[in-house]
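User: Structure please.
Assistant: Input sequence and predicted structure:
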Amino acid sequence: MRMIAAIAFAAMVAGPAAADTADDMMMAREVGQIVGTAEICGYELDADKVAAFVSDRLAAMEPIARSAFQSGSGAHKMRVEEMGELERKVTCATQAKVAAKYGLTP
């Protein structure tokens, strides 16, 4: 019975932390994709806002979540370069909206 209680307690404690890390990873990947493809997509980012966001939000994340920023940036840039015109247009329009949602645009 104690073992079950210990497992349940560990799940309760780890659950929110794991969810936070997953949310951080998603945000870091999105921001990486936005930064990595802004030039290709033709939308403008505010460099000061991006720098502040990265130093405030990403720097506070766990290392594994922060790594999603770099992988999101490079991998997505290559993928966008290989997209057809319609897919690129839709992807870029979406990223521009997400950039605005995060307050990264001028």
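The radius of gyration is 17 Å.
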